[in-house]
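Dear colleagues,

For the upcoming journal club I promised to circulate an example of a predicted protein-ligand complex. I picked one with heme C because it came up in last month's discussion. The inputs are reproduced below in full, followed by the predicted structure.
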Amino acid sequence: MNTLTIPKNMNLKLKRIRMIFGALVLVAAIGGFSSCEKNSYAPAAVDPSTTWHFQTDIQPIFTANCITCHNGIRLPDLRSGKSYLSLTKGGFVNSPASTSRLYIRITTGDHIPRTTDADKLEILYWITQGAKNN
Ligand code: HEC
């Protein structure tokens, strides 16, 4: 009798272990997929070899996202017609571009969500290309 009941119990335990293991694999797979989605970025459609223009590429970013606060009361003044001088004379752009106060500010702290990843790269490339008033 004993020799019969033990294998039966073992089988039941094995089935349970398999079920638990299966459930764990499923949870891990779902978790893996969703975390993958969260952490993977769509490749930014910003080409560093394109010439980035202050008037047509960069100023529109400022006009849309910055001038509610940077409207002459606070430096840099990012209003159209004022921004270029304010950024250059104020020492907000320099080489290497990633050390510019402008770039550092939009990639740190509360300013991060104010521009998209593409905007940040356009600004970075514009500074890298000499921060011209083009
Ligand atoms: C809601 C208001 C607000 C908006 C919108 C805003 N800023 Fe600012 N910004 C501030 C304040 C306040 C400061 C000064 C304190 C600080 O550095 O956070 C500042 C400081 C800065 C500085 C100076 C950093 C330094 O090194 O002195 C830069 C450059 C800047 N902002 C760029 C931007 C750009 C570019 C945008 C638009 C993408 C923007 N800000 C949008 C409020 C704002």
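Two points we might discuss: The first helix runs from residue 2 to 39. Residues 62, 65-66, 68-70, 74, 76, 92, 101-102, 105-106, 111, 114-115 surround heme C (CB under 6 Å).

See you all on Thursday,
B. R.
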